[in-house]
Structures
1.
Amino acid sequence: MDLSRVDLQQVPSHVACVMDGNGRWAERRGLKRTDGHAAGEEALFDAVHGALELGVEWMTVYAFSTENWRRPVDEVRYLMRFNESLLMRRVDELEELGVRVRFIGRRDWRVPKRLINRMDESIAKTAHNTKLTLTIAFNYGGRAEIIDAVRELVAAGAGPDQITEQAITSHLYDPDMPAVDLMVRTSGEYRISNFLLWELAYSELVFVDTLWPDFRRQHLADAVAEFQQRTRRFGGLSN
Ligand code: IPE
Ligand code: IPE
Ligand code: MG
């Protein structure tokens, strides 16, 4: 990985990735869309290695959205099994790398119990790791997350004055997760697609044309270099 354009003292602590373009990657090769999802595994693990080398502390990846249920049943079924088998195949490697695995999203009846079990095993097995937290957004929607946070608050008896920014933040799916510094979306689509709406409020957005299965750690390093060219103002003025 060429780090010559990266300032390792100013690496974003939380990078989020919209892993998009698997279907198009496969179609261009005359393959099935699901082959594209399979090819995305290598991209994900290369990006994880890149994050570790860069010193990124939090990486959140969009694996399945609350809207992805609209896909053909065969593709949905494939994605459920694929994610289950990926966790089985790769959890030991993540564990050895010092990666802590977490999940955000709704655990509703549509998510197979076997996948939920694999998620829980991965969380438990890697809970003590401290190098990088890899959060997998699965059956995740940004709107659902905000709704669920407000519902929890209301259920706990919060009145209107207690619905504050801080209260909502502390009732998100993972209250430990910091705001996103850098969001990278692959495949040339310029949209958020209901990812991390609350956490992205002041993120820097980088869009790349690369399709997710072709994404490698160098693309991550390049996105970090681009992030470092930006001036974040958070509504204030830069010095
Ligand atoms: C992203 O790739 C993976 C998921 C949404 C699960 P897509 O499947 O959306 O690929 P394209 O966008 O159709 O090429
Ligand atoms: C976003 O990609 C969801 C994931 C990458 C998991 P989509 O392919 O579902 O988004 P749209 O439909 O192009 O907005
Ligand atoms: Mg897509």
2.
Amino acid sequence: MLNCYKSQIPCRRQRGIKLELPQEAGYLVFAAAANVLSNLTQSVGPLPAGIKDPAASNGVSNLQRCRAAGYLTLAAVLLAGINHREAIVMIDGKKVLFSGMQSTGNLTLGNYLGALKNWVSLSDEYECFYSVVDMHSITVRQDPSELRKRARNLLTLYIAAGLDPQKNCIYYQSHVSGHAELAWILNCFTYIGELNRMTQFKDKAAKHADNINAGLYTYPVLMAADILLYQADVVPVGKDQLQHLEITRDIAQRFNAIYGDIFTIPEPYMGKAGANIRSLQNPEKKMSKSDENANASIYLMDDPDTIIRKFKRAVTDSEASVRYREEQPGIKNLIEIYCACTGKTPEETEKEFDGKGYSDFKPAVGEAVVSVLKPIQDRFYDLSKDKAYIDNIIKENAGKANYYATKTLRKVQKKIGFPERIR
Ligand code: TYM
């Protein structure tokens, strides 16, 4: 029933122990291991909210049973006499994915196509952590009640877009203090020269000249902490975040070179289409939440008429042919959007609109976008009505995120020489 073997887990460089546990077997064996578990929870901290003590429960859901299997793995590691700190345990044997979005402004089509859409398509393959990064948001002044409202809307949108909150850890960054604690440590392993090169800092500093604060400057270090805290293997982002991914990898490699293999080195992930959506009014600029021209961006909550109107007004050129080429940046951007929404390739799109003008193509792009956004909007409005459901997700997932974050944090603190906690 229980198939136990030693293995080299591919996404980690350390040696690990893996137990293969059929789901049906999980609960029975897990119940038998209840005594071990009670010791185990003392040594690794409390079980995340939502995972019941099997000894106390008469019936558990499949999800709980599945998660419980992860803890049983740890129990077995202890039983086998192996120090659990040295053992690597992956819940459900999956690689880890981390990503996040700022809860500032209104989400744009760029955020959806560049990030959120890929999050959904990758969510079955990885153990996923999706954060509402509200701590990043305060690098620019925010109205407190507005920030709270936007953070909740963003978390609800994650779910409305298709992320299953039972399978994915969807949480507020500010609910996991480990982000700030690891960021401080990583600040001490990041050079001023590296931060000076960050183009996003330069852009934001120019935009907010009256508030060039230290948080804005060290923003990439907090982002590195977000990713490294969960030992993420992969980070799906749009193109504008690649430089931040690069510095994250540099910091992690520098830390590992001194202290050993502590952090997983993350890889960025970008989808085939949509990683670099441009402004509809100026294709030289990226589509952005903070653009002052409302016609430049499609917002996720724009109604269908507004979406079609904005596409009809999109700045293009006088060539009047639907071609995917650098010389026609406005049309290239619209093709990119069309492909990301329909799954077609640029070549297929060129063929479809061969001999047709922009007056056919622009509304077709609008329709394709509406067909993607409308169901998300409907789900968002439905979910928003269920306060208790969303509250419960916030509570449970904060517990889970904290659990994993603390594991990495304690390891890092020990390595750099902070004193052990006395229990
Ligand atoms: P943010 O909130 O600006 O954007 C969220 C995600 O949307 C992508 N994106 C775009 N993709 C394509 N075209 C566009 N026009 C476009 N605009 C935005 C971004 O690349 C991003 O993936 N620093 C991050 C948030 C963050 C984070 C992290 C991300 C904090 N910690 C750790 C990944 C991992 C940011 O400001 O994203």
